[in-house]
What does this fold into?
Amino acid sequence: MKNKELKILLSAPRGFCAGVERAIEIVEKSIEKYGSPVYVRHEIVHNKYVVDDLKNKGAIFVEELDEIKDKTRPVIFSAHGVPKKIPKDAENLKMTYIDATCPLVSKVHREAENLHKAGYHLLLIGHQNHPEVIGTMGQLPNGSIDLVQNEDDAKKYKLKNTKNLAFVTQTTLSVDDTRDIIKILKEKFPNIKEPMKEDICYATTNRQMAVKHIARKCDMFFVIGSRNSSNSVRLVEVAKKSGCAKAFLIHSQSEIPFNQIEKSNTIGVSSGASAPEILVENFITDLKNKFTVSIDEVEIIKENVIFKIPKKLN
It folds into this structure.
């Protein structure tokens, strides 16, 4: 098999975004400052490798505050954001909390609040039960925001009251999918108010553009990322829609399909915004052990975004 030549088109940008880097740094700095354990409510980012690494350093992951036995220990809120009631609950329990919500998610939260205050009824374009969606919907009183998951939901949506309508979106969706949903909503509700600036984050957009750029040149496409990582799953969909039918997610339990790869000449590789680069390197090493590999990194845009960590950790 080793003689089989395989070309890898390596998508760039890929992997960690600024919000993920900031969230991981917040956990590490909190452990440095407060000692271990520190608690993290929900996986800080959706990646098993990252979560396991932070567990080894002294983080304990919980889903709810009431799972935390020792309330004197600090708790960190994940990059996906939390409903408004969670920080209030932490304050009532006299807990120290550090909010690692991605600033781009916080922007959507503020946007939703401001629109609600201005008298709008809100629609959130997003995926049910995703922590970011739970967090955004939890910024507003019950009944003042509705979820639209797909084009079908948009077509069926009926106004529940006489209020003006506005929409916001989950930051990690597919740019193309939201475009189609928004088109339906605008046709149906011509006066619907849209965000001043698109809510889908720069990293999601850039990674999807990079995948689109190379997918049609590939026989197979692999996205390194977790099954519960929305942006990783979307990258697989983008690769398929962009002309590579054999696109797959490689997660912690995945078996690499070497037999199929052997029938390919060119494969594409990218990684989700919460996947560390070492996982991409490991995947490529596994391929190098079986094939004669050449790598061509295709960069469509340079990213230089950095988000500051909270002052209390400096």
